[in-house]
């Protein structure tokens, strides 16, 4: 069987209708479609129904949405998240973002919404997918607390900036996803090499462009090929490990 891979963090609702087939053509056969607010939550749920087993909905409110709209404007989004959480494979994208949240009040609002996500994830026994721009350690501390309190899986998305923090993830059993930055940044590739074999996931974060290349879930295969070389593994052996990791991340 040809090697198959999963894109564990993709804004699939922002891509064209052919993205799923285009990704599958290069062996990226599973996509976790994360969301950012109520509209994209509905969109990824629809995609999950159109592509059962191939598109796994991630339901969440992006921290940038929290700061952009303000906590008081998110009542309907949080209600939808709570209502539709049983249909999700993953709770996310959620987390913290100190590029957007620069005041203590804005940062506190992001933490409040993150804790709402954790409560919903714990209630429905779902893993979480976490964003951490410019606040890597703070978000990781929240992930560790969630993991210790619930026993559920947490994934640090786009987290290949610090070998030290990745080693903490390894110690705490936190999943880390490597993306296309490893193709253009030697530092990101070196940090990705520190991710424990049994905690490694892959992502595209499409449609975000990386290294001047438009984002697309098919790029996950390029990431896999790079990491297989770095780890001295065959592509098939890496694919088998990643499949086991995804099953453990998603849970029963």
Give the class from helix and strand content and strand pairing: alpha/beta
Residue ranges: pLDDT <50 for 5 or more in a row?
none
Strand content: 15-25%
Shape: globular
What is the overall number of helices? 11
Q: List the domain count as a whole number.
A: 1
The top level CATH class name: Alpha Beta
Radius of gyration: 17 Å
- Please give the alpha-carbon distance between the first and last residues: 25 Å
The CATH topology assignment is TIM Barrel
Can you give me a brief rundown of this structure?
With 252 residues, the protein is α/β, with parallel strands linked by helices. Helices cover 48% and strands 17% of the residues. The chain has an eight-stranded parallel β-sheet.
Key structural traits:
8 strands; TIM Barrel; globular; single chain; eight-stranded parallel β-sheet; 252 residues
Describe the structure.
With 252 residues, this protein is α/β, with parallel strands linked by helices. It has one domain (5-250): Metal-dependent hydrolases (TIM Barrel), CATH 3.20.20.140. Helix content is 48%, strand content 17%. The protein has 11 helices and 8 strands. It has helices spanning 19-24, 38-50, 63-69, 75-84, 104-124, 136-150, 163-172, 181-184, 186-192, 219-231, 235-250, and strands at 5-10, 28-33, 55-59, 90-97, 128-133, 154-157, 175-178, 200-202. It has an 8-stranded parallel β-sheet with strand order 1-2-3-4-5-6-7-8. It is globular. It starts with a strand and ends with a helix. 48% of the residues are buried.
